């Protein structure tokens, strides 16, 4: 990411500790490839404290969803935090980093985006917030190379975004009150990088028009609460047909989910997770779970299913001085997993 030196007004006040909780995201929502995204009630945490040359940099991993994450200075959170410091003209080469994630890695639920947004937000807060949320959005988009996941994690709710390679713009929508999400998480990983390399570099005009029109219809349907249109609007010709070969069972689930209680079904981000949307007032939740579990079992794929809610908020942060009585609390004591009732849209 090309950095310009950001002139801060005088030396920044470096805080003693910042903890940030960031929501997961489901990107694309079908036709909105690299454009539409929705934050979900699943979270990761980033905890930063300045360290010293003697103590060096440490990376502590909490929970069972961060297995395999780098614990040295190649860690994504460390790398992104250093980019913030460099841009602000601040030197903080050594950090104590603690990470927790309830977002399965490399499954299409925006774990990398949550790490990028968490690192940007926490690093910015650690040095006195020299950057605006829009500046953080630009940095996040340049780092992830698409604005959908990072926009959803940064702004919360549903976002419609566009990036021309230089400037990213996004509009946030409040999710429809009745919307619920069933995520179907296969046991295998699928890196976003791999799922992007499989995509064609060219599309027919017919398929391009199909996606532009369905993405527009989907955005308007979500903005106006027309959940009845989702089955039609959530179709895609740009990426899902080419990624289906990487996710056994996907074709059948996307084709038939609406006949088994769902409003519609799509690949979550670059997969392999599948996303089924439901209407809390009318969808047959049990039938939805039975249908997807049977469909994936027929392909010999073991899955975890989880009901989530659209999450309306972006990152939440706690900034602490070392003399604060709460200073030594564990990160998820400072920012616990919110109860579903807290989902106030
Ligand atoms: N909490 C985290 N801290 C550091 N790195 C992370 C974290 N979460 C994800 N990552 C990085 O992001 C990679 C997964 O990114 P990606 O393939 O885009 O999958 P996803 O669909 O989860 O975004 C992980 O292999 C890891 O390198
Ligand atoms: N638009 C991207 C979204 C990737 O989302 P992720 O959660 O899989 O990282 C794509 O489809 O490649």
TrEMBL record:
- Keyword 4Fe-4S included in the entry's annotation: no
As recorded in UniProt, its EC number(s) are: 2.7.1.39
UniProt: ATP binding residues: 104-114
Source organism's superkingdom? Answer: Bacteria
Principal localization?
cytoplasm
| Catalyzed chemical reaction(s) | L-homoserine + ATP = O-phospho-L-homoserine + ADP + H(+)
Which stretches are transmembrane?
A: none
Pathway annotation: Amino-acid biosynthesis; L-threonine biosynthesis; L-threonine from L-aspartate: step 4/5
GO molecular function annotation: ATP binding; homoserine kinase activity
Record GO cellular component, one term: cytoplasm
Q: Where is the GHMP kinase N-terminal domain?
A: 75-157
Residue stretches making up the GHMP kinase C-terminal domain: 220-286
- Extract the Pfam families matched here: GHMP_kinases_C, GHMP_kinases_N
- Primary role: Catalyzes the ATP-dependent phosphorylation of L-homoserine to L-homoserine phosphate.
UniProt-listed PANTHER family: HOMOSERINE KINASE, HOMOSERINE/4-DIPHOSPHOCYTIDYL-2-C-METHYL-D-ERYTHRITOL KINASE
Output the HAMAP family linked to this UniProt entry. Answer: Homoser_kinase
The name this protein goes by in its record = Homoserine kinase
Which classification does the entry list for the species? Bacteria, Bacillati, Bacillota, Bacilli, Bacillales
């Amino acid at each position: 990411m090309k950095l310009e030196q950001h002139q801060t007004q005088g030396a920044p006040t470096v805080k003693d500790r910042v903890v940030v909780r960031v929501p997961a995201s489901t990107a694309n929502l079908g036709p909105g490839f690299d454009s539409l995204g929705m934050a979900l009630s699943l979270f990761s945490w980033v905890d930063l404290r300045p360290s010293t040359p003697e103590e060096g940099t440490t990376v502590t991993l909490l929970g069972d969803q961060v297995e395999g994450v780098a614990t040295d200075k190649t860690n994504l959170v460390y790398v992104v935090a250093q980019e913030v410091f460099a841009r602000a003209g601040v030197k903080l080469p050594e950090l104590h980093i603690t990470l927790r994630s309830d977002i399965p890695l490399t499954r299409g639920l925006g774990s990398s985006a949550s790490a990028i947004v968490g690192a940007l937000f926490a690093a910015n807060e650690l040095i006195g917030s020299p950057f605006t949320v829009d500046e953080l959005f630009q940095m996040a988009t340049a780092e992830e190379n698409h604005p959908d996941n990072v926009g959803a994690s940064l702004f919360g709710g549903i976002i419609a975004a566009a990036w021309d390679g230089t400037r990213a713009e996004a509009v946030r929508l409040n999710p429809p009150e009745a919307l619920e999400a069933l995520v179907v998480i296969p046991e295998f990983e699928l890196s976003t990088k791999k799922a992007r390399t499989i995509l064609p570099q060219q599309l027919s005009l017919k398929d391009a028009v199909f996606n532009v029109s369905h993405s527009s219809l989907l955005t308007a349907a979500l903005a106006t609460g027309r959940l009845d249109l989702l089955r039609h609007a959530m179709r895609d010709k740009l990426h899902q047909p080419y990624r289906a070969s990487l996710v056994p069972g996907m074709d059948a689930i996307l084709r038939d989910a609406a006949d088994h209680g769902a409003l519609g079904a799509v690949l979550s981000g670059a997969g392999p997770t599948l996303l089924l949307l439901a209407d809390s007032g009318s969808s047959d939740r049990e039938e939805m779970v039975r249908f997807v579990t049977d469909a994936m079992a027929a392909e010999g794929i073991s899955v975890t299913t989880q009901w989530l809610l659209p999450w309306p908020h972006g990152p939440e942060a706690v900034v602490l001085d070392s003399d604060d009585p709460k200073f030594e609390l564990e990160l998820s004591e400072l920012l616990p997993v919110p109860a579903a009732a807290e989902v106030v849209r």
